[in-house]
Amino acid sequence: MSDTTLPQGLVPLKIISTGIALPDRRVTSAELDVRLNKPAGYVESRSGIIYRHHADDRARDKRVRW
């Protein structure tokens, strides 16, 4: 990192790590087809997504409190 002078009021920072957390519940596109009353393959053919992770209320509450 170069030694540059920052404008007054700005604090230098550096990202030292990143991460990811996925909720446990996996919902498939096939499940969404049924839930949305669509023909088999409808959601996947339009989104290209096979499954997605959904957080339950406890997981959302935990994230907000963090």
From TrEMBL:
InterPro entries given in the database record: Thiolase-like
Q: Which GO molecular function annotations are given, in alphabetical order?
A: acyltransferase activity
Q: What is this protein called?
A: Uncharacterized protein
